[in-house]
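Hi, here's the filled form for the chain we discussed.

Project: internal
Contact: R.S.
Residues: 521
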Amino acid sequence: MVFFAQTFWGNVLFVVAGAVAALVLLNLWDLVGVRIWRKRHERAIKDAESEIEGLRTQGRLDAKLEAEEICRRAESRLEAREEKLAERESQLQGREVFMNQQLENLSVREASADKQRESLDDDRKSLESEVRAVELSRAEWIEKLSSVARLTESEARDQLMRLAESEGKREAQDLSRRIIERAKQESEEESRRIVSLAIQRYAGDHTSETTTAAVALKGDDIKGRIIGRDGRNIRAFENATGMTVLIDDTPNAVVLSGFDPVRREVARESMERLIADGRIHPARIEEVVERVSSEIEGRVVKLAEEAVSKLGLAPVHDEISKRLGRLYFRLSYSQNVLDHSVEVARLTALMASELGANITDATRAGLLHDIGKALGDEMKGSHAAVGAEFIRRYGENGAVVNAVASHHDEVEHETVLGILVSAADAISAARPGARSEPITSYINRLKSLEQVGTSFAGVERCFAVQAGREVRVFVRPDAVSDESSFALAKDICRKIEDELHYPGQIRVTVIREIRCVEYAK
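And the returned structure, exactly as it came back:
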C-alpha cells in the first residue's frame, strides 16, 4: 500500500509538474509570439509607411507629368492658334498684294488705254495723210497718163509693163521677206519639217546601216535555240541588252537592231559568245551579257585613256572618259567619231601653235568637240551645246567649253579656239576618203554647189565651204537689194533641193556689202 501510495503521489506530482511546465512553456511561447507579432507589426508599419511614401512620390511624379502634359497641350494649342493666326495674316497679306496688283493692273490698263487712244489718233492722222498722198499720187498718175498719151502704143505698153514688173518684184520681195520672218518665228515647225524630210530621204538606207549589226551563224538550226521554248531565250536576250533580235529568212545570220552603238556592240559580242558556248538559256544569257557589259565599259575607258595619252594631255575626268570612249563605237558617214576627234585635236593644236594660242586648250577642245554625240538622251539639245554643258560640269575651263559650244557657230566665239575647232572639224570631215566618199564625187559636189550659186543674176562669187555643208554667195550691191537677198537665198535653196543629192542639210548664206572708197590727196 505504501508503495502504491508513493507511486500515486509520485504520479500526481509528475502530472502537476508537467502541467506547470506546460503552463510555463505556454507563457514563454506567448511571450515569444508577442515579440514576433510585435516585430511583424513594426515591420508592417514600416512597409506601410514606405509604401505610403512611395505612393506620395508616385503621386507627385504623376501630378508633375500630368501638369507637364497639360502645359504641353496648352502650348500645342497656342502654337496651333499662332499658326492659324499666321496663316490668316499671310492670307490677308496675299489679298493685300493681290489688291495692289489689281490696282497696278488697272493703272497699266488705264495707261494702255491712253496709249491706244493716242495711237488711234496717230493712226487717224496717218490715214488722213495717206489719203492726201493717194490723192497726190492720183494726180501724178493723171499727169503721167497725160504724158503717156503723147507716146506710141508700144512705148506706153513697155513703160507700163516695166512699172508693173518692178512693182510686182518689190511686192514679191516684201512678201518673201515676211514669209521668211514668219518662218523664223515658227522655227520649231520648220525644224520638224526638215527632220521629217531628212527621215523620208535617208531613213531606209542610213538607218539600216547605222542601227543594225549582223551575227554570222554556222547553220540555221541554231536559230531555234536562240529563240528558245515559247521564245523565252530571245525575250531574255532583248530584255538584257535592250536590242531587238531579228530572226528572218536571211540565211546563216541574225540581225541585232538598236540605236545605242555601245549596247549594240554588247549584244553582238554576247550573241557570238552564246553561240560559241552552245549553252543558251535565260540565266546564261544574263550572265554573259553582264560580263560583256563590264568588259565593254572597261574597253571604253581604256580607249579614252589611249586617245588622251596619244595626244599628250593630262587625264580627263572619269565621267568624261566614259563618254569619250563611247565615240569609238559611233560612226558619222562611216568615219569613226573617236578617230575623227583625235584628228581634229591634232589639227587644232597645229593651227593654235601657228597663231600662238594655248596648244593644250586647243587640243582638249578638238578632242572633246563631239562628246555630245555620246550622251544620247541624257541631255536635250544639239551635240555642241550638250557636250559643252557636260564638260563644264566636270571641270573643263571656260575656253574649252566655249570652243566646244561654238564649233558649229551656234553660240558666239569668245576665243579663237572655237574657230580653230570648226576649221579642223571641216578639214577632217572633208578629207577625201574620211567618210567613204571618192575624191572625184566630193569635188564634183562642191563644183555643183558653186555652179548653182553663180547661175543667178547679180551673183559675183560663190564658195562651197564646211565640206559642202554651207554655200556662201557674194552678190553685187548695185544689182541685188537687201530685200531681194532673202528671195535669192530661197531660190538657191530650192534649186539645190531640185537638182542635187546631198547628205543632211546645206546652209545658204547671201552676203551683200557696200564698200565706200575715197582717196585723200
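Let me know if anything looks off before we file it.
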